[in-house]
Design brief:
Layout: E1 11-12, H1 22-30, H2 50-67, E2 73-78, H3 81-93, E3 101-105, H4 108-118, E4 123-128, E5 150-154, E6 156-157, E7 162-163, E8 175-178, E9 195-199, E10 210-215, H5 232-237, H6 247-264, H7 267-287, E11 293-294, E12 305-309, H8 313-325, E13 328-329, E14 340-343, H9 350-367
Parallel strand pairs: 1-13, 3-4, 3-5, 5-8, 8-9
Antiparallel strand pairs: 2-10, 6-7, 9-10, 11-12, 12-14
Bound molecules: pyridoxal-5'-phosphate (PLP).
Amino acid sequence: MRTNTAVDRVFNFSAGPAVLPVPVIEEAQRDLLSLPGCGASILEISHRSKPFIAILEDAEQRLRDLLAIPRSYRVLFLQGGSRLQFSMVPMNLLRGSGKAAEFVLTGSWSNYAIKEAKREGQTRVLWDGRDTNYDRLPKLDELPYGDSAYVHLTSNETIQGVQFASDPKRSESVFVADMSSDFMHRPVDVSRYGLIYACAQKNAGPAGVTVVIVREDLLERSADSLPGYMNYQAHHEANSLYNTPPTFGIYVVGLVCKWLQEEVGGLANMYQRNRDKARLLYDVLDESPDFYQGHARASDRSLMNATFRLPSDELTAAFVCEAAAHQLESLEGHRSVGGIRASIYNAMPVEGVEALRDLMVDFRNRHAS
Ligand SMILES: *Cc1c(COP(=O)(O)O)cnc(C)c1O
């Protein structure tokens, strides 16, 4: 039986909450009763205590170093997941702007995002992939941009498995990116964006904390009339301690960043690993397009969520069943796309992807007509 540590752990292909690096869980476990030098658990200490402030500052500094976040950007640790950002972004950046927010609709999550923005103000759709069931992406430099409050895009559509491979170039627009499911999977040029948000539970930590990276000047758009918690400016002024923040989640995000820095060697290395892992699966799709039919067009395929179908529902069910027998878990596709979804985030070890690839090849050889 193949496992990925001495302890019995499956290879977990869940879309989120998702696999975390083993050294991160081990460190959290080792220090759970008493943080070194503190004498109490991270679960027990005040968010205003010295040890926690040190953890918060360390997590922010590691994020800044990994992503080369310019000094003119603020880093906020919030709650409410990315769903709350679907509302907070338009409340802060669209309300009262007299302009529309422009949306690139590339899948389920961007559609949820525009739905919330419509409650706040004017929206305009720059591109919509609905006609082909969100299997492809537009070229970002060729969209019919106007004078907008901001342009919202979803860097990786977790459900459909399409992902933008590069950052937008246009400097006249303020880009807001939902990076929930590919945060820190490669180096990004933060200066190309006005605001980046990512719930942690896909690629950066546990559920409960959401990272927001926002360009300082945009904070001036936040109206005083907003409810306190919904105001980015309030969180910035309070240094992410406006209310009790998700202390444990912030701690684990810091550990994930430390793992990326010290064990992976930075985001360029992480990106190479991610490309290598995804290639293992996509090579099988390309070799056998009649058996494994990818959902996403090859040029727009995600390095994080590989989505594909087998020739029948019976074969899909049989595949999921065999996978579980091989300790390969949570491979069922989202109900709106069907088939298989293999989420292979940063923390998925290459051995897990190799094991899935081996099963795919073997299963095809036994079942292809
Ligand atoms: C998971 C996900 C969300 C929703 O995150 P919550 O934390 O559940 O609110 C939003 N956008 C994308 C791209 C996601 O993958």
